[in-house]
Specification:
Order of helices and strands: HHHHEEHHHHHEEH
CATH class of one domain: Mainly Alpha
Structural class: mainly alpha
Helix content: 25-40%
Number of helices: 10
Strand order of the largest sheet: 1-2
Distance between the termini: 182 Å
């Protein structure tokens, strides 16, 4: 029986010699010598993170310290939308791969500090101290003295390698100082329904003078007692309105907070008591008897002359 000649292989040959598989991925690995990042399988094969979050975490871990990773920067770098990138950052925060906190700079500006973790929830490792070199162990002494070898010149000692500089410990970022407690809002000494209603109308009408001072009902009820305290101290409603609406900042984000600060910090003192008016003095009159001048509302006799007449009677 003749042998059948096969002119074509029964199946396609693999491009990777020695690694043939019927299905699945085939890895072709080569060693990296520069520009590489080590990523754990706990991130690359995470079961709950989205693919966008995994890719974003790998990108952030590959960046050097100090690189900007804000949402605007990432939107300019990748084709994903701002909403998807913001959602991916929130995913990384929920699974402890990312930490974002607000830090107040010495000048008062607030910035976002971002910390990336290659292990979820791992604390920054302190700088490792250099390990002391251990002396080589001496050979065990033989049980019987061996014959002394011929004395040879000792070899010249090799120069010691320069000591590596100690790694400087990265100082921990200073935590922002605790916020000062806000002083309480002024309160009127005596409740007055009419005064409270006038204070509520004044606050609700501020948007007529300044559209940015549009307050909600909750803020109006909260600030009305403070305005009533101003009115109780004889402050005119126009003066209160001017104190609250003049010299506003260009970027007004929290109008209720600004008004609460002004109502507390600029509270006028109570008016002092009005002085007692002096009793009006009468005009000068000439006494009809002794012609002495005295003050009285009508002409007549002075006090002395009236006393003499009373004694004579």
């Amino acid at each position: 029986m003749d042998t059948q000649q096969v002119s074509a292989p029964s199946r396609a040959s693999s491009r990777v010699p020695g690694r043939v598989t019927a299905f699945g991925v085939i890895h072709v690995d080569s060693a990296h010598t520069s520009r590489f990042t080590i990523v754990g399988n706990h991130l690359a094969q995470h079961g709950e993170l989205s693919l966008t979050a995994i890719g974003l975490a790998v990108h952030i871990q590959s960046l050097p310290d100090g690189a900007k990773v804000g949402i605007k920067v990432l939107v300019d770098r990748f084709p994903e939308s701002e909403a998807r990138i913001a959602a991916a950052l929130r995913e990384l925060e929920e699974h402890s791969y990312l930490e974002r906190t607000l830090v107040r700079l010495p000048g008062g500006k607030l910035v976002t500090r971002t910390i990336s973790y290659n292990q979820p929830g791992a604390a920054p490792a302190p700088a490792a101290a250099p390990q002391p070199q251990t002396e080589p162990s001496l050979p065990a002494r033989p049980p019987h003295p061996a014959p002394a070898p011929e004395r040879a010149e000792p070899p010249a000692p090799e120069p010691a390698p320069p000591a590596a500089p100690a790694a400087e410990a990265t100082p921990a970022p200073a935590s922002p100082p605790p916020a000062r407690p806000r002083p309480p809002l002024p309160q009127p000494q005596a409740p007055d329904l009419e005064r409270h209603r006038a204070a509520t109308d004044l606050l609700a009408g501020l948007r007529r003078d300044e559209p940015r001072l549009l307050l909600g009902e909750h803020d109006v009820r909260r600030l009305a007692p403070a305005v009533a305290a101003w009115l109780e101290r004889d402050a005119h409603p126009d003066a209160v309105r001017q104190a609250l609406t003049t010299d506003l900042p260009d970027h007004l984000k929290q109008p209720a907070g600004l008004l609460a600060h002004r109502l507390t910090a600029l509270l006028p003192p109570p008016l002092p008591a009005a002085p007692t008016p002096a009793r009006p003095r009468g005009p000068l009159q000439n006494c009809d008897r002794c012609d002495r001048a005295f003050r009285a509302p009508e002409p007549g006799r002075c006090r002395d002359c009236r006393t003499d007449l009373a004694e004579a009677a």
